[in-house]
């Protein structure tokens, strides 16, 4: 994990200094959202939330598209299991167990 004030570049090297961390921290919508939220301005943070989420999600697609594909498939499968398979295969009312089995 890099030390505070350093950032990892695409080639794996580190860029030192507070300026590097400040330049990247103040320029992204995600960090602006975090700064606004930590300052206590909830209304402004709520306005920035969709933009910050979209920026984070698009950056994740650029960095690792297969990660996004796998997570999307798994999320869709969970939604399918919870919403669509909920009633199928279950019978309401009387149990199929005999009195001997109970």
Description:
With about 100 residues, the chain is mainly alpha-helical. Helix content is about 60%, strand content about 5%. It has a two-stranded antiparallel sheet. The longest helix has 22 residues, at about 40-65. It is elongated. The N and C termini lie far apart (about 55 Å).
Percent range of helical residues: 55-70%
- From the spread of the alpha carbons, the general shape counts as elongated
Element order, helices and strands? EEHHHH
Sheet with the most strands: spatial strand order: 1-2
Cα-atom Rg, whole angstroms?
24 Å
According to DSSP, the number of beta strands is 2
Major sheet description? 2 strands, antiparallel
N-C termini distance: 57 Å
Note the beta-strand portion. under 5%
Oligomer: single chain
What is the SS-derived class?
mainly alpha
Number of helices: 4
Uncertain residue segments = 1-6, 16-25
Average pLDDT, all residues: 75
Q: What are the main properties of this structure?
A:
single chain; two-stranded antiparallel ribbon; mainly alpha; 102 residues; 2 strands; 4% strand; 61% helix; disordered N terminus
Short description:
By secondary structure, this protein is mainly α. The chain has helices at 18-27, 29-38, 42-63, 65-84, and strands at residues 7-8, 14-15.
